[in-house]
Amino acid sequence: MNSLSKAHVHERLRREVNFGCPVPKCGSPFLTFHHFDPPRRVREHSEEAGMIALCQKHHDLADGGQFTKQQLRDMKANPYVTDRLQCEWVWQPESILVLLGTMAFIGPRPVLWLAGVQVVAVRREEVPELSSAVMRVDFDLRAPNGTTIATMKDNIFDASVEGLIIETPPQGRRLELVHSSETVLALELRAYELQLLRALLEKTFSDNGSLADVVVAEALANCTDSDGKVPVLKIHGTFFQLGATLRLTAKRSELTIRWAGGEEKVDIGGRLFHAGSGLSIRSDGIDHLRFGS
Ligand SMILES: [Zn+2]
User: pTM score, two decimals?
Assistant: First the structure.
Protein backbone atom coordinates (compact mmCIF):
# COMPACT_ATOMS: atom_id res chain seq x y z
CA MET A 1 0.00 0.00 0.00
CA ASN A 2 1.46 3.39 -0.97
CA SER A 3 1.75 6.26 1.48
CA LEU A 4 -1.04 8.28 -0.19
CA SER A 5 -3.67 5.59 0.25
CA LYS A 6 -2.34 4.93 3.77
CA ALA A 7 -2.89 8.64 4.50
CA HIS A 8 -6.45 8.30 3.19
CA VAL A 9 -7.08 5.30 5.45
CA HIS A 10 -5.75 7.28 8.41
CA GLU A 11 -7.92 10.27 7.54
CA ARG A 12 -11.02 8.07 7.34
CA LEU A 13 -10.14 6.42 10.67
CA ARG A 14 -9.73 9.84 12.31
CA ARG A 15 -13.02 11.01 10.84
CA GLU A 16 -14.75 7.79 11.97
CA VAL A 17 -14.08 8.70 15.63
CA ASN A 18 -14.84 12.42 15.02
CA PHE A 19 -11.13 13.25 15.46
CA GLY A 20 -11.01 12.29 19.16
CA CYS A 21 -10.01 9.05 20.93
CA PRO A 22 -13.24 6.99 21.03
CA VAL A 23 -12.67 5.45 24.48
CA PRO A 24 -15.39 6.74 26.84
CA LYS A 25 -14.40 9.99 28.65
CA CYS A 26 -11.16 10.33 26.60
CA GLY A 27 -11.63 12.24 23.31
CA SER A 28 -7.94 13.16 22.99
CA PRO A 29 -7.21 14.47 19.46
CA PHE A 30 -3.61 13.14 19.50
CA LEU A 31 -4.33 10.00 17.55
CA THR A 32 -2.35 6.91 16.62
CA PHE A 33 -3.60 3.87 14.68
CA HIS A 34 -4.13 0.46 16.27
CA HIS A 35 -4.42 -2.78 14.26
CA PHE A 36 -6.66 -5.27 16.08
CA ASP A 37 -8.21 -7.60 13.51
CA PRO A 38 -5.85 -9.16 12.76
CA PRO A 39 -3.15 -7.68 15.04
CA ARG A 40 0.04 -6.53 13.29
CA ARG A 41 2.12 -9.40 14.68
CA VAL A 42 -0.19 -11.77 12.76
CA ARG A 43 -0.21 -9.84 9.48
CA GLU A 44 0.69 -6.34 8.22
CA HIS A 45 -2.40 -4.66 6.77
CA SER A 46 -4.26 -1.39 6.27
CA GLU A 47 -7.81 -2.70 6.49
CA GLU A 48 -10.07 -0.06 8.00
CA ALA A 49 -12.49 -2.55 9.59
CA GLY A 50 -9.65 -4.05 11.63
CA MET A 51 -8.06 -0.72 12.63
CA ILE A 52 -9.05 2.04 15.05
CA ALA A 53 -7.75 5.52 15.86
CA LEU A 54 -6.77 5.73 19.57
CA CYS A 55 -4.69 8.11 21.69
CA GLN A 56 -1.25 6.78 22.67
CA LYS A 57 -2.37 5.89 26.20
CA HIS A 58 -5.34 3.83 25.00
CA HIS A 59 -3.27 2.39 22.13
CA ASP A 60 -0.83 1.01 24.74
CA LEU A 61 -3.74 -0.41 26.77
CA ALA A 62 -5.18 -1.99 23.61
CA ASP A 63 -1.76 -3.55 22.85
CA GLY A 64 -1.88 -4.91 26.41
CA GLY A 65 -5.13 -6.70 25.62
CA GLN A 66 -7.40 -4.43 27.68
CA PHE A 67 -10.13 -4.24 24.99
CA THR A 68 -11.86 -7.06 23.13
CA LYS A 69 -12.32 -6.86 19.37
CA GLN A 70 -16.04 -6.35 19.97
CA GLN A 71 -15.40 -3.44 22.35
CA LEU A 72 -13.14 -1.81 19.76
CA ARG A 73 -15.77 -2.33 17.04
CA ASP A 74 -18.37 -0.75 19.34
CA MET A 75 -16.10 2.25 19.91
CA LYS A 76 -15.66 2.63 16.12
CA ALA A 77 -19.45 2.61 15.71
CA ASN A 78 -20.21 4.83 18.73
CA PRO A 79 -17.19 7.05 19.38
CA TYR A 80 -16.96 9.21 22.49
CA VAL A 81 -16.85 12.46 20.45
CA THR A 82 -20.12 13.05 18.63
CA ASP A 83 -20.40 16.64 17.44
CA ARG A 84 -17.93 18.78 19.41
CA LEU A 85 -14.29 18.11 20.10
CA GLN A 86 -13.12 19.87 23.25
CA CYS A 87 -9.82 19.20 24.95
CA GLU A 88 -7.03 20.73 26.93
CA TRP A 89 -4.13 21.80 24.71
CA VAL A 90 -0.51 20.89 25.34
CA TRP A 91 1.64 23.82 24.29
CA GLN A 92 3.45 25.79 26.99
CA PRO A 93 6.72 27.19 25.62
CA GLU A 94 8.71 29.57 27.82
CA SER A 95 9.26 31.99 24.94
CA ILE A 96 8.23 32.28 21.31
CA LEU A 97 9.08 33.45 17.83
CA VAL A 98 6.00 33.46 15.57
CA LEU A 99 6.35 32.96 11.82
CA LEU A 100 3.07 33.87 10.13
CA GLY A 101 3.83 32.89 6.55
CA THR A 102 6.89 35.05 5.83
CA MET A 103 6.28 37.50 8.68
CA ALA A 104 8.24 37.18 11.93
CA PHE A 105 6.85 38.38 15.27
CA ILE A 106 9.08 38.66 18.32
CA GLY A 107 7.50 37.64 21.63
CA PRO A 108 3.86 37.27 22.76
CA ARG A 109 1.39 39.50 20.86
CA PRO A 110 -1.52 39.54 18.44
CA VAL A 111 -0.42 38.35 15.01
CA LEU A 112 -3.41 38.23 12.67
CA TRP A 113 -6.74 40.05 12.52
CA LEU A 114 -9.42 39.73 9.86
CA ALA A 115 -12.37 42.17 9.78
CA GLY A 116 -11.70 43.27 13.36
CA VAL A 117 -11.57 39.70 14.69
CA GLN A 118 -8.32 38.61 16.32
CA VAL A 119 -7.68 35.31 14.51
CA VAL A 120 -4.40 34.31 16.17
CA ALA A 121 -2.60 35.77 19.18
CA VAL A 122 0.08 34.62 21.59
CA ARG A 123 -0.05 35.86 25.17
CA ARG A 124 2.13 35.42 28.22
CA GLU A 125 0.52 33.72 31.19
CA GLU A 126 1.91 33.44 34.71
CA VAL A 127 1.82 29.92 36.18
CA PRO A 128 1.73 30.49 39.97
CA GLU A 129 2.44 26.79 40.72
CA LEU A 130 5.72 27.01 38.81
CA SER A 131 6.40 30.68 39.66
CA SER A 132 7.16 31.20 35.98
CA ALA A 133 5.30 32.09 32.81
CA VAL A 134 4.34 30.25 29.64
CA MET A 135 3.13 31.36 26.23
CA ARG A 136 -0.44 30.54 25.32
CA VAL A 137 -1.70 30.40 21.74
CA ASP A 138 -5.27 31.64 21.25
CA PHE A 139 -7.20 31.50 18.01
CA ASP A 140 -10.66 32.22 16.71
CA LEU A 141 -11.08 30.70 13.27
CA ARG A 142 -14.19 31.63 11.32
CA ALA A 143 -15.70 30.64 7.99
CA PRO A 144 -16.13 33.32 5.29
CA ASN A 145 -19.77 33.79 6.45
CA GLY A 146 -18.55 34.64 9.98
CA THR A 147 -19.56 31.41 11.73
CA THR A 148 -17.03 29.94 14.15
CA ILE A 149 -15.06 26.92 12.91
CA ALA A 150 -12.77 26.36 15.91
CA THR A 151 -11.34 28.24 18.86
CA MET A 152 -8.46 27.94 21.29
CA LYS A 153 -8.90 29.96 24.46
CA ASP A 154 -7.18 29.58 27.84
CA ASN A 155 -5.55 26.43 26.41
CA ILE A 156 -8.88 24.76 25.61
CA PHE A 157 -9.38 23.68 22.00
CA ASP A 158 -13.03 23.62 20.91
CA ALA A 159 -14.44 22.77 17.48
CA SER A 160 -17.60 21.48 15.93
CA VAL A 161 -16.52 18.49 13.81
CA GLU A 162 -19.16 19.18 11.14
CA GLY A 163 -17.40 19.96 7.84
CA LEU A 164 -13.98 19.96 9.48
CA ILE A 165 -10.89 17.77 9.15
CA ILE A 166 -8.63 17.90 12.21
CA GLU A 167 -5.12 16.49 12.28
CA THR A 168 -2.85 16.42 15.33
CA PRO A 169 -0.04 13.85 15.41
CA PRO A 170 0.57 12.11 18.78
CA GLN A 171 3.63 14.20 19.68
CA GLY A 172 1.47 17.32 19.64
CA ARG A 173 3.73 19.48 17.49
CA ARG A 174 1.15 20.28 14.85
CA LEU A 175 -2.53 21.15 14.56
CA GLU A 176 -4.11 21.34 11.14
CA LEU A 177 -7.71 22.37 10.50
CA VAL A 178 -9.24 22.13 7.03
CA HIS A 179 -12.82 23.37 6.74
CA SER A 180 -15.35 22.69 3.99
CA SER A 181 -15.37 26.45 3.25
CA GLU A 182 -11.70 25.96 2.15
CA THR A 183 -10.53 27.92 5.18
CA VAL A 184 -7.32 26.32 6.45
CA LEU A 185 -5.30 26.91 9.62
CA ALA A 186 -2.11 24.96 10.27
CA LEU A 187 -0.05 25.57 13.42
CA GLU A 188 3.26 23.97 14.30
CA LEU A 189 5.27 24.54 17.46
CA ARG A 190 8.81 23.28 17.66
CA ALA A 191 11.94 24.39 19.53
CA TYR A 192 14.94 25.01 17.23
CA GLU A 193 18.63 24.89 18.01
CA LEU A 194 20.64 27.77 16.58
CA GLN A 195 21.86 25.99 13.46
CA LEU A 196 18.41 24.71 12.50
CA LEU A 197 16.84 28.08 13.32
CA ARG A 198 19.29 29.78 10.98
CA ALA A 199 18.50 27.28 8.21
CA LEU A 200 14.75 27.74 8.74
CA LEU A 201 14.95 31.55 8.61
CA GLU A 202 17.29 31.55 5.59
CA LYS A 203 14.68 29.45 3.79
CA THR A 204 11.78 31.64 4.97
CA PHE A 205 13.52 34.86 3.89
CA SER A 206 15.32 33.38 0.88
CA ASP A 207 15.04 36.64 -1.11
CA ASN A 208 16.31 38.78 1.77
CA GLY A 209 19.36 37.25 3.49
CA SER A 210 20.01 40.30 5.67
CA LEU A 211 16.48 40.04 7.13
CA ALA A 212 17.19 36.39 8.02
CA ASP A 213 20.32 37.53 9.94
CA VAL A 214 18.36 40.23 11.80
CA VAL A 215 15.56 37.81 12.79
CA VAL A 216 18.11 35.21 14.00
CA ALA A 217 19.80 37.86 16.17
CA GLU A 218 16.47 39.19 17.54
CA ALA A 219 15.18 35.67 18.24
CA LEU A 220 18.37 34.71 20.10
CA ALA A 221 18.25 37.89 22.19
CA ASN A 222 14.51 37.76 23.00
CA CYS A 223 13.05 34.28 22.44
CA THR A 224 15.56 31.76 23.80
CA ASP A 225 14.21 29.21 26.30
CA SER A 226 16.04 27.63 29.24
CA ASP A 227 17.31 24.79 27.00
CA GLY A 228 18.98 27.41 24.80
CA LYS A 229 16.53 26.75 21.97
CA VAL A 230 14.08 29.08 20.24
CA PRO A 231 10.46 27.85 20.23
CA VAL A 232 9.02 28.74 16.81
CA LEU A 233 5.27 28.81 16.12
CA LYS A 234 4.71 28.46 12.37
CA ILE A 235 1.29 29.57 11.11
CA HIS A 236 0.15 28.73 7.60
CA GLY A 237 -3.33 28.89 6.16
CA THR A 238 -5.93 30.20 3.75
CA PHE A 239 -8.34 32.85 5.00
CA PHE A 240 -11.18 34.64 3.23
CA GLN A 241 -12.34 38.15 3.94
CA LEU A 242 -14.65 40.39 1.87
CA GLY A 243 -13.55 39.44 -1.64
CA ALA A 244 -9.94 38.96 -0.59
CA THR A 245 -8.01 35.76 0.07
CA LEU A 246 -4.94 35.63 2.29
CA ARG A 247 -2.61 32.69 1.67
CA LEU A 248 0.26 32.05 4.04
CA THR A 249 2.80 29.33 3.29
CA ALA A 250 6.39 28.66 4.32
CA LYS A 251 7.64 30.63 1.29
CA ARG A 252 4.94 33.22 0.56
CA SER A 253 2.47 35.61 2.19
CA GLU A 254 0.06 36.53 -0.56
CA LEU A 255 -3.12 38.57 -0.61
CA THR A 256 -5.47 38.22 -3.58
CA ILE A 257 -7.96 41.05 -3.95
CA ARG A 258 -10.90 40.51 -6.29
CA TRP A 259 -13.28 43.01 -7.83
CA ALA A 260 -15.86 42.89 -10.62
CA GLY A 261 -13.26 43.26 -13.39
CA GLY A 262 -10.55 40.94 -12.14
CA GLU A 263 -8.10 40.32 -9.35
CA GLU A 264 -4.74 41.45 -8.14
CA LYS A 265 -2.15 39.49 -6.16
CA VAL A 266 -0.06 41.33 -3.60
CA ASP A 267 3.06 39.66 -2.24
CA ILE A 268 3.44 40.88 1.34
CA GLY A 269 7.00 39.54 1.45
CA GLY A 270 9.31 38.99 4.41
CA ARG A 271 8.83 41.30 7.41
CA LEU A 272 9.86 41.59 11.03
CA PHE A 273 7.43 42.97 13.62
CA HIS A 274 8.73 44.09 17.01
CA ALA A 275 6.41 44.42 20.01
CA GLY A 276 3.81 47.13 19.38
CA SER A 277 4.35 47.29 15.62
CA GLY A 278 1.89 46.17 12.97
CA LEU A 279 0.60 46.58 9.45
CA SER A 280 -3.03 47.12 8.52
CA ILE A 281 -4.99 47.25 5.29
CA ARG A 282 -7.89 49.65 5.76
CA SER A 283 -10.81 50.85 3.70
CA ASP A 284 -13.95 52.76 4.72
CA GLY A 285 -12.46 53.15 8.20
CA ILE A 286 -12.32 49.40 8.83
CA ASP A 287 -9.20 47.32 9.35
CA HIS A 288 -9.93 44.53 6.89
CA LEU A 289 -6.63 42.87 7.52
CA ARG A 290 -4.10 43.52 10.23
CA PHE A 291 -0.84 41.90 11.20
CA GLY A 292 0.51 42.50 14.71
CA SER A 293 0.30 45.63 16.91
ZN1 LIG B 1 -7.72 7.85 24.68
Answer: 0.92
